[in-house]
Amino acid sequence: MPNTRSSPVQDAFDPLIFLGETGAGRTIDRYVKNQKIFSQGDAADAVFFIQKGKVKVTILSEHGKEAVVGIFGEGQFFGEGCLEGNDFRAGTSQAMEESLITSISRRAMLATLGAEPKFAQFFISYLLSRNSRVEDDLIDQLFNSSERRLARLLLLLANFGKEGDGQPIPVTLSQETLAEMVGTTRSRVSFFMNKFRKMGFIDYNGKIEVHRSLLDAVLREKPQIEQDQ
Questions:
Q1: In the predicted model, what is the mean pLDDT of residues 159-175?
Q2: Is 33 left (phi over 0), alpha (psi -120 to 50) or beta?
Q3: Which of 44, 51, 87, 138 is deepest in the core (most CB within 10 A)?
Q4: Which residues pair with residue 52 across a beta bridge?
Q5: Does the pLDDT of residue 181 top 60, yes or no?
Q6: Calpha distance 137→59 (Å, rounded)
Q7: In b/e form, how buried is each residue of 95-134, taking b as 16+ CB within 10 angstroms?
Q8: Which domains does the chain have, with CATH numbers?
Q9: Contacts with 189 (C-beta within 8 Å, 6 or more apart), sequence order
Q10: What is the model's pLDDT at position 227?
Q11: Cβ(41)–Cβ(92) under 8 Å?
Q12: How high does pLDDT run on average in the chain?
C-alpha cells in the first residue's frame, strides 16, 4: 500500500520559525524609534510581520490632514494590501519604538500561502481576528462616548486579555495620537487621562501604565466611565 502519511518536513513547518528566519524573499530588519518602514505612495511589494516592537500606520489626505489608521504590535502583520493587487502604499508606516520586523516579498508570501497549509491557517486566523477588531472599532465609534473609546483603546494597546499576570502594562503614545485614534480633541483626552489616573485606572508619568481596574470598570459598565453629556 502507498504511504499516505505526511512527510516530516511538512509536519514540522512552524509559521513563527519561518517568519523569524531570513530566506528566499524574506529579510529581517531593525528599526529605531520614529524610523519609517514605507511611505504613502511607495510601491507595495511586501508584507511585514512584527517580531518585536510597535508600528503606527498613518494616512495623509489630499488636504494635508494626517490620521492614524492603525497601531500594530508583536505578532501582527501589516502591509498585506499588496496581496490583493494594491500596487502602491495607501499609508505610511513608522516604528513607534525599537522594532524587529520581517519583510516578505509578495511573491514569497503568495507561494508560501499556497504551499504551506499551516502558514495559510496562521495568516487567515490573523485576518479574521483583525476583521473582528475592525467591526468592534466601528461599533465603538458609532455607539460609545469618547471617554469609553479612550478606555477601550488603552486596554487594546496594553494587550489586556492576552496577559495573565494582572500587572500594569505600559503604553507609550502621545496624547495627540490617542486623540486622533479616538476621534476627539487632545484637551478631552488630557481630561479623561487625568480622571483615569485619579481613579487609579492608570499611572501616567511619561508613559502610561494601564491597570486591570480599568478593564474591570469597562466590563462592569459602572458609572466611573460615563457617557459624554
A1: 66
A2: beta
A3: 44
A4: 100
A5: yes
A6: 17
A7: bbeebbbbbbbbebbeebbeebeebeebbeebeeebeeee
A8: 8-132 (2.60.120.10), 144-220 (1.10.10.10)
A9: 150, 175, 178, 179, 182
A10: 46
A11: no
A12: 85
Q: How far apart are the first and last CA of the chain?
A: 74
Instruction: Give mean pLDDT, residues 152-157.
Output: 85
Query: Which residues touch 92 (CB under 8 Å, ≥6 apart)?
Result: 36, 38, 39, 40, 57, 58, 59, 60
The mean per-residue pLDDT over the stretch 61-80 comes to: 89
Cell numbers of 137, please? 472599532
pLDDT value at residue 8: 47
Classify 222 in phi/psi space as left (phi over 0), alpha (psi -120 to 50) or beta. Answer: beta
Is a pLDDT exceeding 50 seen at residue 6? no
Helix 175-182 vs helix 186-198: crossing angle, to nearest 10: 110
Question: At a CB cut-off of 8 Å and minimum separation 6, what does 206 contact?
Answer: none
Q: Which residues contact 71 (CB under 8 A, 6 or more apart)?
A: 54, 55, 56, 57, 96, 157, 173, 181
Chain Cα centroid distance, residue 129:
11
Distance CA 189, CA 182 (A): 9
For residue 24, what is its C-alpha cell?
528566499
- How far is residue 20's CA from residue 136's CA, in Å, rounded to a whole number? 30
8 Å CB contact between 74 and 16: no
The confidence score (pLDDT) of residue 42 equals 96
The predicted pLDDT at position 170 comes to 73
